[in-house]
Design a protein that fits this description.
The complex is a heterodimer of chains A (240) and B (203).
Chain A lengths: L17 E12 L2 E8 L10 E7 L5 E7 L9 E6 L5 H8 L6 E8 L11 E6 L4 H13 L5 E7 L8 H6 L3 E4 L14 H8 L4 E6 L1 H13 L7 E5 L5
Parallel strand pairs in A: 7-8, 7-10, 8-9, 10-11
Antiparallel strand pairs in A: 1-2, 1-6, 2-5, 3-4, 3-6
Chain B lengths: L23 E2 L21 E6 L5 E4 H5 L4 E8 L4 E12 H8 L7 E6 L4 E5 L9 E6 L2 E2 L9 E3 L12 E7 L6 H4 L19
Parallel strand pairs in B: 1-5, 2-11
Antiparallel strand pairs in B: 2-3, 4-5, 5-8, 6-7, 6-11, 8-9, 8-10
Classes of the chains: A alpha/beta (240), B mainly beta (203).
Chain lengths: 240, 203
């Protein structure tokens, strides 16, 4: 893989629909579902990429949504973290109905831009469920012995609302809670002073979260010294 | 492909013939999706250029563009992230009028739409001619907000909405198709929602 400095360097790759079997299903909180899938004819993925999950009704009606991959490419299973939205058509099914052994239609990996090449010094500012691609980046960096290349700041309301909070903290990420005092740090979004040292060596920056989070996080990174042209954004909404 | 155990259609079907396969009616919401930092562009600094394989490369400022005949699109838009929004009203100018002034050369067959952010998206020329594409600065009677591509965006509503480049600044006419941002990212070169052309590899 090359270090894509510009979208012009990115080479598209075709993907096709395949099937994935749910091997484990956990609900760390009522609003989060962690699925680990065995994917047939699986392709390699880079940290930051996502999969599409498609559900098919008996009348051939379909609904599909994209979910970031949390796992490292080296993991025998593909791990997806699904946030359950109120009335979420797909997330509701995955949370309430899906069981271990169920077969889902999946397609991936998708996304050739929001991915870390594992070689370029990078900073992630991620919020809520948006931490998932950063988890994949951290797992990959750990396997490759390149933890020094990747700095992560994760923002959540509280430990209960931040997926992978413990794993992120163990990996040395800055974890900022906006509605929870954790003793070391007063509540609040990551500050420019906290971000500046994380961003100092970064040549690429990844921002992932809700549109509201992205609108807040992007100017913060720029204020912390990040070149706006190096910022790659992934945002998602409550589309269920 | 297998039926998903325990999954059934729960949503209302939506008006007949208006919701493409795999899409759902988002109702009153208009989700925002971008891959870059949202730029704040003063209309005084905005312009639209048509160049490449044309006889008369032309640039219109904000005021000049507003002196072209006003054009309105009323209808539906479809985002590849699976929402469809019905009965939108956009106002701006027709891409046909821009092309009529710039006069495409016979060998021009594709368009690469550029945004001032560096975003690009590719389209066959025939998908932006014949009353199918606009440059718009108003949505639902209000100025287009920066999140939705304001001050002006391309509008090609018969294709997935990533083709409707936000913050559009340039239409470059080409003889050969040249992939844009999402297309290099893995999304389809044409993006017809009725054929579900979402990703590279879809027929």
């Amino acid at each position: 893989m090359s270090a894509d400095r510009s979208i012009d360097d990115v080479v598209p790759r075709e993907t096709t629909w395949t099937t994935g079997t749910i091997i484990t299903k956990e609900q760390p909180t009522p609003d989060q579902v962690r699925l680990r899938l065995h994917v047939d004819d699986r392709q390699h993925h880079d940290p930051g990429q996502h999969y599409v999950v498609r559900l098919r009704a008996p009348d051939d009606y379909t609904a599909q949504r994209s979910y970031s991959v949390a796992s490292d490419d080296d993991d025998p299973l593909v791990e997806l973290l699904v946030e359950r939205f109120p009335d979420g058509e797909v997330s509701g099914h995955l949370a309430d109905v899906a069981e271990v052994g169920d077969v889902l239609e999946v397609r991936g990996p998708i996304g050739r831009w929001f991915r870390w090449d594992t070689r370029t010094p990078a900073v992630c500012l991620v919020g809520g469920t948006g931490v998932v691609p950063a988890v994949s980046m951290l797992r990959t960096a750990r396997r490759l012995g390149r933890r020094d290349l990747l700095r992560v700041a994760a923002v959540g309301r509280s430990p209960e609302h931040l997926p992978y909070a413990a794993e992120l903290a163990r990996a040395g990420a800055l974890v900022a809670y906006t509605r929870h005092d954790d003793g070391d740090r007063a509540r609040g979004v990551a500050t420019v002073d906290e971000l500046a040292p994380l961003a100092a060596a970064a040549e690429v920056a990844f921002v992932c979260g809700s549109p509201r989070f992205v609108a807040l996080a992007t100017p913060l990174l720029i204020e912390a010294g990040v070149d706006p042209t190096t910022i790659r954004v992934e945002q998602f909404g409550a589309t269920g | 492909m297998p039926v998903t155990r325990g999954f059934f259609r729960k949503r209302a079907q939506g008006p007949e013939g208006r919701i493409p396969p795999g899409q759902y009616d988002t109702g009153s919401g208009w989700p925002v999706l971008t891959a870059e930092a949202t730029p704040r562009i003063d209309p005084a600094d905005w312009s639209i250029t048509v160049d490449g394989l044309v006889e008369e490369p032309t640039t219109w400022t904000w005021d000049e563009a507003h002196r072209l005949p006003s054009a309105t699109y009323s209808g539906d838009i479809h985002c590849v992230t699976t929402w469809t929004k019905l009965d939108m009203v956009f106002r701006g100018i027709s891409v046909d009028d821009l092309l009529a002034a710039a006069r495409p050369r016979p060998e021009a067959r594709f368009v690469l739409a550029h945004s001032s952010t560096g975003y690009t998206t590719n389209l066959p020329l025939e998908d932006v001619t014949g009353g199918k594409a606009w440059v718009v600065w108003e949505a639902e009677g209000k100025p287009l907000t920066p999140e939705h591509g304001g001050p002006a965006r391309l509008l090609v509503p018969h294709l997935y909405f990533w083709k409707s480049a936000k913050w559009v600044s340039r239409l470059e006419l080409l003889a050969e198709d040249q992939q844009g941002f999402w297309e290099r990212n893995g999304y389809h070169d044409r993006g017809d929602p009725w054929r579900e052309q979402r990703y590279q590899g879809d027929a």
